[in-house]
Design brief:
The chain has 113 residues and is an alpha+beta fold. The chain is built from four helices and three strands. The mean pLDDT is 96.
Length: 113
């Protein structure tokens, strides 16, 4: 399945998604553009699936992607326990009004409770 390139080169796109997923798991909800939120949804679901698996290899894979070790610990210890009975759909994207400066469509992405 083809993913959006978000008008960035691959290194910048990976860095953007790493910082967004770190912020999402740190705060539980972030506001960003709609296209970034839709791409972030796939990465966040993969990280939660790794956390649900819970073995050492999954933890190391998540730590290689998430930029803060404390956020990874929170993901594996707290967040994974909330979703043990859920088989996907861990995030929700809510559309907002367009941004005033450049009229970009905004969205909130949050973890489903």
């Amino acid at each position: 399945m083809a993913r959006s390139r978000l008008r960035r080169v691959s290194g910048a796109r990976k860095a953007l998604l790493r910082s967004l997923v770190t912020a999402l798991f740190q705060y539980g909800r972030i506001t960003t553009t709609e296209s970034k939120a839709k791409e972030l949804r796939h990465v966040a679901d993969k990280m939660i699936s790794l956390a649900k698996r819970g073995d050492l290899h999954a933890r190391r894979q998540a730590e290689a992607f998430i930029m803060d070790r404390a956020v990874t610990k929170k993901l594996f210890d707290e967040t994974a326990k909330k979703y043990t009975e859920r088989n996907g759909g861990y995030t929700r994207v809510l559309k907002l009004e367009a941004r005033l400066g450049d009229n970009a469509p905004q969205a909130i992405i949050e973890l489903v409770d």
